[in-house]
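R.M. (postdoc): so does anyone remember the format we settled on? I'll just put the structure tokens first.
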């Protein structure tokens, strides 16, 4: 049995399910149906049959008829055997034997006598088709022709009386149905109107008369003659007027309208313009002048209308009618579109073939609109199926031919304006008849192998042991042994015939080379039984067939595809709504969706289960970008994730005030404000500006507003002299104004400083020589009433005029660099302002010799606020170079300019090399020390860019880091496999799967490609796995034609320029079942996790938890332990609160009377507690604190707009200051002296302030009353000397503050700098030499001040204490900043301690405190556990 190799099918364009018959035969059963049912067609033995001419000579055309007329539909067919002619109307065969009105003429035409047509009965109108049949040969059908019957006579508009000037054009309307227009004629004065190019009728029925004359006047009417009685319109009179004496406006009486015509039809563009003088009309097409010269198809009618006959596609365009009468010009436009009926570019060709072959009938058509193509076999429609497929849009492919497929095949093309048909004959030859000529192009390549006639000789026996070694959802691998007749089998080829069980149509697949004993049969249907047989073939022909083998393909499991049309939009500043549509789910209904969302820039996703197709997420951050994606779930598991959609929540007003508002009094009329933006994350939008509100402190109701831009400063001018003002700042967005800062006050100067003369001489100048530099420090002039704008430093060898440097008025020291060693320098210092430079101060110094390597001795200046500068730095190394040696080693070399020219190291210096890579961005530097001018850096990552820098250290002196050098290590083979391998089924194609992955974590170079291995046996040798290569820039790949309901294993391997990396772990995936929707798959892709195509890599060592359930927050404790812990915490908390309340009440009652006496005594001695008290009587000097000991701190403010009381508790010892409970301190608050609110606020230091910016500036403390304390302490009203011993005694400051040091150890490297309330002072005043404090002041500048941790609590007073709620104690929480007070100064400490000792019984309080301490320790132990 001869066999042909089948072409691999190109895939169905649409499948209507597995059909047992390749064709659905429509209409009455004819010869085609009979032959398919089993009756054999007549053969001519082994004689070659020839193609029989069989075609139409005449085909029916579209006809327009009227009621009662007779119609002939022409049809004539040619064949050697006269064909039988039948007619179909609207797809159904007409029974003409018993029809009185319709009869078949001898030539095959159809005659319809007396067409019937009424409103409710239209039996004759429709589509007609001629069918020609030759017995034992086949059937062909003609094109379809439309019979249209004109409707009943009816006018849609009738002519109306009108008048026209002589020589102009007139229009008489007579609008009828477009079907009736050909039956309209006109009469003038009851006589027929003869038409020509001056008087003509439009296709709509209207009459146009051009160049009107007197003879055109009269009564006009139009008549419809469509059979039966004529229908007359109303009569209308046309009057002809003489020429007017005055010009008439030029207007269009009828304009052209856009038209769509079919090629070959005629077009009339009416253009009738009227006016005086009589207009001239011309035409353009696509803005080019249109002429009729040399063209028989274009005609200008009298009056200007355009006629185009036999329209072609080239006539398409925009036509413009331009009317001009010399006075004015008007124009009108109309577009012409042309449609083209279907035409064949390639007609089907006749084909010879053998059974089991695959063939293709080719058919190419053109037309406008684009035609649709359908195929007809022997007059019946071909329905696409497994074996009949439409390929390349128009071609018909027939797979696995059987004898009944013989016949005539017709390609029928159809569009809106027509249809056409072309046919060809298929003859299936006996197997012993060779195809006569070279195969036409319509035969597939699979067929060409077996066209040569066979020679005579022994044929092979049947192949042995045919088995299916691999069965998938979409493919099956068959193997067999050679026939007994030919054990070697080297010269044998094999044909594999296969078909669905129960279907007689066989397909054939051939082995690719002689001797091969296996084949892969692809493009099968899932969960379907196929029958296979194998035939061996030698040079003499095909041998015996093997026994049939039945194999069922695997069922296919389909996961949902990505949800289409996912959209996200912001509803408010904190909510976003996400919508999507239902995805394709294969054979499992969608059960639910997971919506994943993540803040942009973060790496942790959150998810929520959703039942519907939309969800609104609330509680998001304002004006923040979020990404969203959706994963659908069916009974098989999670599907493919959608792409991320990104949306930003809406903006809102800022949720926090600006930070670090500071005031700087410029002069008597202006104050400069500086601030920082609100904290990150609180802007809630784009900051568009800042609103500043200010008022006089004395008149709080009179507030002035000023709105500025986005700059972080503002100068407020036009203020009154010597007046205290309060300021607050709020940030603005487009949504409005955010919360404002607390009010901060400053007082303008009484009078401005003097700048009519130069400054006086600076009060001191100190120099300190080093080897190549000199450190200069100074103090300002003593007279601070003169403006100082800066200092000029001159220096040189022997003369101070060689070099001059100017520095800011706030600066107090400067280092002169790049000097010569062992040289004598003269230095001068002058203060200057806008008037000029003041008197200089001179000093000289000799730089140290170059060989001086002794450590720098401490440099102490008599002035108490002069700094101690660091030793001068060394020069950094230069010429740093990185030389790449391998994939993990780079050599760093450099030069040292501080060495001699021979670069020999003779001292104890050493070098530090540091390096890092920028991926990831937060990578820390690694360092190593070297004593030579090079270093070998090892242990680097392959193919990674590193940056290197070097510094030199000698004794206590070090250089800055050198310029960086960069180097990229060489590539190495990948050392890790591709990650996140996932396998999902493709929606709508269960035999196709999609493999997704991510590049290896350790790619060690540019990935140039991937190899996907897959197999159904995870233990098979790797060379037995199927491989699919993928280019390196792809992270997804489709694998088609797999077997349904089969577990596959997938591995992926990456390669770069250095070679192949390791393989990934095998990922299992079971392909879906074809039609089963209720079977649960045994296996899922092991890469599929709860997030669709983004699985969580749990690692090979993952083990499921042993316990019953996990805490939702990851806590390993059982519910019982959690409940017990909660009970303990609640109990201890309640007991603690009760005890604290009892102690507070007890202590308060005992101390009330004594404290009142105490306060009264102190108040009578000290006088007024108010801020301005007796400050004018005593003026202490300005106090200037060096910037390294002082920094401005942000100040915790009370929300109360007029704070009166601010209590400052005093901790008794270090144990009293605990982060758990400050309620004891809050009780002690009640028994402290009251201080002025803004003073105690300003004296509180905050954690944020100590870690904030440290401006390099001095802070003047202007003339203050003696009771003002300059320290990080509560500002207190201290006593005059005469009464200080009454209310306070001095103690050793070390003993007072020592108890606080343990809590301040975290501030190890940073200096604990004081904050102080700042009275208004002039910024241009210089630092005065401190004078001796007046008698009675108790200022001690040496007292150390150790600020303690405080917690900023907006919307709460600074003395409020925050405690953790009981409900939160069971979780692991970050440490909370705890509100603890600052240390009071000596006087206040002494006075408070005295209060404590006077008001409490020591034994009672000691007992209570000991009991509380025990409770606190227990609570601490529980919470930390």
């Amino acid at each position: 049995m001869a066999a042909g190799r089948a072409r691999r099918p190109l895939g169905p364009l649409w499948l209507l399910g597995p059909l047992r018959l390749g064709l659905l035969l429509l209409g009455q059963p004819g010869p085609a149906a009979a032959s398919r049912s089993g009756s054999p067609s007549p053969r001519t033995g082994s004689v070659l049959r020839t193609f029989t001419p069989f075609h139409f000579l005449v085909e029916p055309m579209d006809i327009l008829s009227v009621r009662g007329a007779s119609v002939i539909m022409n049809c004539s067919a040619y064949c050697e055997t006269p064909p039988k002619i039948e007619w179909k109307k609207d797809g159904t065969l007409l029974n003409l034997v018993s029809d009185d009105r319709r009869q078949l003429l001898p030539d095959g035409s159809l005659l319809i006598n007396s067409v019937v047509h009424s409103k409710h009965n239209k039996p004759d109108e429709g589509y007609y088709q001629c069918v020609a049949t030759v017995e034992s040969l086949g059937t062909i059908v003609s094109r379809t022709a439309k019979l249209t019957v004109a409707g009943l006579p009816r006018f849609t508009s009738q002519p109306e009386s009108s008048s026209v000037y002589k020589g102009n054009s007139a229009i008489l309307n007579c609008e009828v149905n477009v079907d009736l227009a050909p039956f309209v004629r006109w009469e003038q004065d009851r006589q027929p109107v003869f038409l020509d190019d001056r008087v003509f009728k439009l296709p709509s029925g209207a009459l146009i008369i051009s160049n009107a004359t007197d003879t055109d006047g009269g009564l006009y009417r139009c008549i419809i003659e469509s059979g039966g009685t004529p229908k007359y319109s109303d009569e209308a009179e046309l009057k002809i007027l003489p020429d007017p004496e005055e010009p008439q406006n030029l207007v269009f009486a009828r304009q052209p309208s856009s038209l769509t015509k079919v090629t070959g039809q005629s077009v009339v563009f009416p253009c009738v313009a009227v006016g005086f003088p009589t207009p001239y009309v011309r035409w353009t097409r696509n803005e080019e002048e249109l002429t009729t010269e040399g063209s028989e198809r274009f005609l200008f009618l009298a009056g200007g209308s355009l006629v185009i006959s036999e329209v072609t596609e080239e006539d398409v365009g925009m036509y413009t009618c331009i009317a001009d009468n010399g006075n004015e010009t008007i124009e009108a436009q109309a577009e012409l579109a042309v449609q083209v009926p279907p035409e064949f570019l390639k007609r089907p060709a006749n084909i010879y073939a053998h059974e089991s072959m695959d063939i293709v009938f080719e058919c190419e058509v053109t037309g406008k609109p684009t035609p649709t193509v359908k195929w007809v076999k022997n007059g019946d429609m071909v329905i696409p199926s497994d074996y009949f497929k439409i390929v390349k849009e128009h071609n018909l492919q027939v797979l696995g031919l059987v004898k009944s497929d013989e016949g005539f095949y017709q390609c029928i093309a159809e569009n809106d304006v027509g249809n056409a048909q072309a046919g060809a004959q298929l003859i299936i030859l006996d197997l012993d008849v060779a195809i006569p000529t070279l195969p036409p192009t319509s035969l597939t390549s699979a067929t060409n192998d077996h066209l040569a006639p066979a020679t005579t000789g022994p044929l092979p026996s049947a192949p042995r042991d045919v088995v299916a070694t691999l069965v998938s959802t979409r493919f099956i691998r068959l193997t067999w042994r050679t026939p007994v007749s030919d054990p070697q089998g080297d010269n044998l080829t094999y044909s594999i015939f296969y078909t669905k069980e129960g279907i007689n149509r066989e397909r054939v697949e051939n082995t690719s080379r002689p001797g091969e004993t296996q084949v892969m049969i692809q493009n099968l249907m899932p969960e379907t039984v196929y029958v296979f047989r194998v035939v061996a073939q030698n040079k003499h022909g095909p041998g015996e067939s093997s026994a049939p083998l039945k194999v069922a393909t695997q069922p296919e499991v389909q996961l949902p595809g990505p949800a289409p049309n996912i959209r996200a939009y912001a509803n408010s500043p904190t909510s976003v709504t996400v919508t999507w549509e239902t995805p394709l789910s294969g054979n499992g209904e969608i059960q639910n969706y997971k919506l994943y969302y993540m803040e942009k820039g973060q790496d942790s996703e959150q998810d929520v289960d959703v039942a519907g197709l939309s969800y609104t997420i609330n509680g998001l951050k304002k004006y923040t970008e979020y990404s969203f994606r959706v994963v659908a779930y069916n009974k098989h598991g999670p599907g493919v994730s959608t792409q991320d959609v990104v949306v930003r929540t809406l903006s809102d007003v800022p949720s926090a005030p600006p930070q670090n508002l500071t005031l700087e009094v410029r002069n008597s009329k202006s104050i400069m404000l500086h601030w920082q933006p609100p904290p990150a994350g609180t802007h809630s939008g784009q900051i568009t500006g800042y609103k500043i509100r200010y008022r006089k402190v004395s008149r709080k109701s009179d507030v002035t507003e000023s709105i500025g831009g986005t700059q972080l400063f503002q100068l407020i001018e036009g203020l009154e002299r010597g007046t205290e003002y309060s300021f607050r700042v709020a940030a603005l967005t487009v949504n409005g104004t955010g919360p404002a800062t607390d009010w901060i006050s400053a007082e303008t100067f009484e009078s401005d400083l003097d700048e009519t003369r130069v400054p006086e001489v600076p009060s001191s100048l100190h120099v300190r020589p080093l080897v190549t530099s000199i450190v200069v420090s100074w103090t300002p002039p003593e007279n601070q009433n003169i403006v100082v704008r800066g200092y000029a430093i001159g220096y040189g060898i022997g003369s101070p005029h060689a070099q001059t440097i100017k520095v800011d008025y706030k600066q107090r020291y400067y280092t002169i660099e790049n000097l010569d060693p062992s040289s004598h320098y003269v230095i001068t210092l002058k203060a200057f302002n806008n008037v000029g430079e003041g008197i200089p101060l001179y000093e000289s110094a000799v730089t140290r010799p170059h060989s001086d390597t002794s450590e720098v001795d401490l440099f102490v200046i008599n002035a108490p606020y002069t700094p101690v500068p660091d030793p001068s730095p060394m020069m950094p190394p230069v010429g740093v170079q990185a030389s790449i040696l391998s994939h993990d080693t780079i050599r760093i070399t450099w030069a040292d300019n501080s060495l001699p020219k021979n670069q020999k190291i003779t001292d104890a210096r050493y070098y530090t090399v540091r390096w890092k890579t920028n991926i990831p961005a937060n990578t820390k530097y690694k360092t190593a020390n070297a004593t030579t001018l090079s270093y070998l850096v090892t242990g680097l990552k392959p193919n990674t860019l590193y940056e290197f820098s070097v510094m030199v250290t000698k004794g206590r002196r070090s250089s800055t880091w050198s310029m960086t050098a960069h180097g990229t290590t060489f590539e190495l083979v990948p050392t890790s496999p591709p990650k996140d391998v996932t396998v999902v089924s493709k929606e709508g194609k269960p035999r196709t799967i999609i493999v997704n992955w991510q590049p290896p974590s350790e790619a060690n170079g540019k990935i140039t490609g991937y190899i996907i291995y897959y197999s159904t046996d995870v233990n098979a040798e790797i060379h037995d796995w199927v491989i699919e290569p993928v280019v390196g820039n792809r992270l997804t790949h489709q694998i088609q034609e797999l077997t349904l309901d089969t577990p596959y294993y997938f591995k992926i391997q990456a390669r770069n320029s250095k070679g192949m990396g390791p393989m990934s772990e095998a990922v299992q995936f079971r392909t879906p079942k074809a039609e089963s929707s209720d079977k649960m798959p045994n296996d899922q892709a092991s890469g599929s996790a709860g997030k669709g195509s983004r699985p969580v890599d749990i690692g090979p060592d993952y083990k499921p938890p042993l316990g019953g359930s996990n805490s939702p927050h990851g806590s390993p404790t059982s519910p019982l332990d959690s409940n017990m812990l909660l009970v303990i915490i609640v109990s201890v908390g309640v007991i603690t609160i009760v005890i604290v309340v009892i102690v507070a009440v007890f202590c308060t009652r005992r101390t009330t009377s004594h404290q009142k006496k105490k306060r009264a005594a102190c108040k009578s001695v000290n006088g007024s507690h108010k801020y301005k008290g007796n400050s004018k009587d005593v003026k202490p000097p300005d106090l200037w604190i060096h910037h390294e000991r002082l920094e401005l701190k942000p100040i915790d403010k009370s929300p109360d707009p007029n704070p009166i009381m601010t209590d400052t508790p005093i901790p008794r010892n270090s144990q009293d200051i605990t982060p758990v409970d400050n309620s004891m301190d809050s009780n002690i608050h009640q028994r402290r002296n009251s201080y002025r609110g803004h003073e105690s606020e300003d004296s509180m230091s905050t954690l944020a302030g100590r870690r904030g910016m440290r401006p390099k500036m001095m802070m003047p403390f202007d003339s203050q009353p003696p009771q003002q304390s300059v320290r990080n302490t509560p500002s207190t009203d201290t006593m005059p000397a005469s009464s200080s011993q009454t209310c306070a005694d001095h103690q050793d400051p070390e003993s007072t503050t020592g108890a606080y040091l343990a809590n301040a150890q975290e501030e190890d490297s940073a200096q604990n700098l004081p904050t102080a309330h700042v009275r208004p002072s002039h910024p241009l005043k210089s630092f005065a030499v401190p004078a001796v404090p007046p008698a009675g002041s108790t200022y001690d500048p040496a007292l150390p001040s150790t600020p303690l941790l405080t917690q900023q609590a907006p919307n709460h007073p600074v003395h409020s204490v925050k405690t953790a709620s009981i409900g939160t104690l069971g979780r692991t929480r970050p440490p909370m900043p705890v509100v603890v007070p600052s240390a009071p100064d000596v006087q206040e400490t002494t006075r408070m301690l005295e209060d404590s000792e006077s008001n409490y019984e020591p034994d009672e309080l000691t007992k209570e405190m000991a009991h509380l301490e025990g409770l606190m320790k227990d609570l601490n132990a529980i919470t930390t556990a």
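R.M.: ...and that's the designed sequence above, right after the tokens. Also worth knowing: The chain has a mean pLDDT of 74. The chain has nine helices and 89 strands.
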